[in-house]
UniProtKB/TrEMBL annotation:
InterPro entries: Glyas_Bleomycin-R_OHBP_Dase, Glyas_Fos-R_dOase_dom, GlyoxalaseI/FosfomycinResist. This is Dioxygenase. Transmembrane segments: none annotated. Keywords: Dioxygenase, Oxidoreductase. Residues 5-74 form the Glyoxalase/fosfomycin resistance/dioxygenase domain. The keyword Plastid does not apply. It holds the Pfam family Glyoxalase.
Length: 116
């Protein structure tokens, strides 16, 4: 098997509406509803499915925990417009990146990067 790309990932959160507001207002992601009631965050050709703590969908992570994620997202927006820490030079999947860090409402670490 050879993995081609990431389709979606699941983010376990304390409060779905709060998470939706943060990711849509701060990071510009689109909030979508699927399977009638489930929420996800859409960007590019990927999405982040949201699981409410205590009401996760099966199958689920062995230890679904809000605040345990560490995500790196790539943007063309200058990094000085966002920030908790950075800019810092790092290594992304395709080469050198400059990254900044911020936290979402569940305190997940969000890395936002520009490729050099």
């Amino acid at each position: 098997m050879k993995i081609e790309k990431l389709d979606h990932l699941v983010l376990n959160v304390k409060d779905i509406p709060t998470t939706c507001r943060f990711y849509s207002e701060v990071l510009g992601m689109k909030v979508i509803t699927f399977d009638d009631t489930r929420k996800a965050l859409s960007f590019g050709q990927q999405k982040i499915n949201l699981h409410q703590k205590g009401h996760e969908y099966e199958p689920k992570a062995l230890y679904p925990t809000p605040g345990s994620a560490d995500l790196c997202l790539v943007t063309k927006t200058p990094l000085t417009e966002v920030i908790e820490q950075g800019p810092i030079e790092k290594h992304g999947a395709l080469g050198k990146i400059i990254s900044i860090y911020l936290r979402d409402p569940d305190q997940n670490l969000i890395e936002i990067s520009n490729y050099q």
